[in-house]
Amino acid sequence: MQQENVVLVDSNNNKLGLMPKMEAHIKGVLHRAFSVIIFNNNGDIMLQKRARTKYHTPGLWSNTCCSHQRDNEDNITAGKRRLYEEMGFTTQLQNFDSFIYKVSFSNGLIEHEFDHILTGIYNGIPNLNKKEVDQWKWVSIDSLYHDINNNPDNYTAWFKIIINKYSESLKKWKLQ
Prior knowledge:
35% strand; 4-stranded mixed β-sheet; Nucleoside Triphosphate Pyrophosphohydrolase; 4 helices; 3-stranded antiparallel β-sheet; single chain
C-alpha cells in the first residue's frame, strides 16, 4: 500500500510541502483537510459514527465524511472521492467555509488542520464502507446543536467546532 501524504500549509493555506499522514499527526504539523456535510431536502444533516477501528476518535459521531486532500487535488474532487469511499455515494459539493483547529488525543496524536467545509444535498441511503463507518443517521441542526452541547464526548472535536461555530449559517445555506 502506498504511503498517504498530507499537504502541509501555512495559516493562509499556502502549500509548504508534503508529509506522511501519521508523521503529521504525531508532530501536530498544520495540514489541509476537509469535512463534508450532506443535507437532505428536509434540512437534516447526515451523520456518520466512525468505525471502532479508526486510528483516532473511533466510535464517535461526526459529519458525513472527512479526510485529507491529496497533492494537487482540489477540495471538491477530494470531497467527492472520500464521500464515495466512506459512504458509497456521490453528489454535487460546494465550498462552504474553512477554519484552523488543533486538538490532541489521548493516543498521542495531534490534529492540526486547515479544515475546508464542503456542503451538498443527497436524499438516498448510503452504502457504508464498514472499515470506515459503523452507523449513519439524519439529524436536524437544532437537535444536533443541543446534543453536542449536552453530550460533547459523543462527537469528534472538529465536528463540535463546525456545529458550534457554523450552525446558523449552515441553516441559511440549506434554505438557499
